[in-house]
Amino acid sequence: MVSNAQTSHHHHHHHRSSSSPSITFEFSSSAMLSAAAAAAAAQSYYALAAVASSTTNNPAIAGTSTNSIPGPMTTTPLLVHHPDYHQHHHQNNNNNHHSVHSSFGQNTNNHHIIRGGYHHHNLVNNNHIHDSSAASQIHPQVNNNGHHHSNGNNNGSVVDLPPDRPIGYGAFGVVWSVTDPRDGKRVALKKMPNVFQNLISSKRVFREIKMLSFFKHDNVLSALDILQPPLINFFQEIYVITELMESDLHKIIVSSQPLTPDHIKVFLYQMLRGLKYLHSAKILHRDIKPGNLLVNSNCLLKICDFGLARVEENDRSRKMTQEVVTQYYRAPELLMGAKYYHEAIDMWSIGCIFAELLGRRILFQAQTPIQQLELITDLLGTPSLDDMRYACEAARLHVLRQPIKLHRLSSLTKLSNHANNETIHLLCQMLTFNPDKRINSTTALNHPYLSEGRARYHSCMCKCCYTVNGDTRRFCNDLEPISPHPFDNSFEKELTSVQIVKERLHKEIMQRCLASNQVPLCINPLSASFKNFASSTVAHPSELPPSPHCWE
Fold first, then answer.
1. Which of 323, 2, 11 is nearest to 173 (CA)?
2. What is the pTM of this model?
3. Among 36, 239, 382, 425, which is disulfide-ready with 227 (CB 3.0 to 4.6 Å)?
4. For domain 59-66+75-92+110-244+498-543, which CATH number applies: 3.40.50.720, 3.90.550.10, 3.30.10.20, 3.30.200.20?
5. Residue 318 and residue 310: Cα distance in Å, rounded?
6. The pLDDT of residue 157 is above 50
7. Is 183 a catalytic residue?
8. What confidence tier does 409 reach under pLDDT thresholds 50, 70, 90?
């Protein structure tokens, strides 16, 4: 799934759908067109040419609706409607799945166990999980247009759903590709197990849940739904539903998929557009890397994985954790033990990814944090004392003891045949040693290198602009919107014990569920995938990023 080079550092969960980079982007080489032509060209610019892949015939992944003749459902889905909803809304539903009802209903004790909150897996509880008879209520069917629609009164002729399957796992959870029974769409179901083991990790989960509910931006992944939790005594894991994306940038970079300058511009534009929004909300991502940039075959990109994100620190005297950012994408100030850092760490990561898109290889790929710093100074030269103002004393001494190096920035032109002066100019502004002099996302978005990426994104990819009369593109006033207000993290002050986190998080999710106008969902223990899903665990410590070098 990942190259050996990156396996050891490629952690965290990814909300992407294919286990191989089986998507191909196609671009027309023509310049920007009229809106009518742009809309037509959207098909050719961004059309998916599904590469024959032995791993999947999944129509959801191939980007097309299924053409097979609908037949009875062959797998019991993992995600079903919540039974409490059906007791009130489907009293008179004709029962086509009698065997499912009866096989489950025979043992009332078993029924009570699953409703009552203790399953033999010690996983499942009264509200997250319930029997699959709910699945019989509404099945997505495919109409003549190939679009899914719901039909409560079916006679067994339901669409053959793709199997639910794991698609990624990491430090803070596992992610499965599943079908949402409400509309038949494939979504990502993220399970966060054992949330309440210690205060630090439970606070991080609470923060991530709050952020996923806060985000409203097309280039940032957000929560579509959070499953209703059980009674608080049985509350151990959290299930979040997000949009399902087809791949991630790491898979694309290591694949044989051609990447043109147009691809790189439209990807970089969206990364910076999403990052501008996050930074305007005063959020530092702190783990930007290709695997956390999800992409679809139409070149749409979303930033994901906020397990390490936090709000910017205003108090420069407060020590911030250094165990952030996968090593290859870690900014020099972090490598040099900075106690304080700001949003510039994310811009460094973007610069590394920009270079990786151009060269199709990791720019700074070292075994240890010290060697990582060596590779950076090999390229950028020996930093000045002012450039090392955030570094700890031991790290500064280490650099000053080395022979003086001259920069070798001209070598960046060798990354790619397409790397012209404009490209290298922007790249060097991102890969600036001094974080206070590094370019920010807003300034980077205004760089001439990105004007074509912006035009392309807004001519036929975005949701913020629209076409009228079939040929006139109406551009919105604000092409790179910021957050209306900063993310409020004041809730964290009161989180002083695991029990308090548990109570507040339970209340938060329950309120969200009660305020939602969606049909509630739960996990189905009779699903073929249930046992596998229930026992799927998080990443082993060896798969997490290496700890930072201990300077002091």
1. 11
2. 0.78
3. 239
4. 3.30.200.20
5. 14
6. no
7. no
8. very high
- Is 551 in a helix, a strand, or coil? coil
Read off the DSSP letter of residue 132.
G
CATH 3.40.50.300 fits 4-10+21-47+247-474, yes or no: no
Token duo for residue 349:
């990561």
pLDDT over 60 at 541, yes or no: no
CA 163 distance to own-chain centroid: 21
> Which stretch of 97-101, 381-385, 386-390, 437-441 has the lowest confidence by average pLDDT?
97-101
The position carrying tokens 């067109």 is: 33
Amino acid, res. 295? V
Cβ(297)–Cβ(16) below 8 Å = no
* Active-site residue, from 131, 218, 287, 346: 287
Using alpha carbons, list the distances in angstroms from residue 191 to 128, 223, 238, 458. 11, 13, 6, 34
Nearest to 32 by CA among 453, 418, 421, 471: 453
Give the span between the Cα atoms of 219 and 326, in whole angstroms.
Answer: 21
With bands split at pLDDT 50, 70 and 90, how would you rate the model's confidence at 385?
Answer: very high
What span, in angstroms and rounded, lies between the C-alpha atoms of 367 and 344? 24
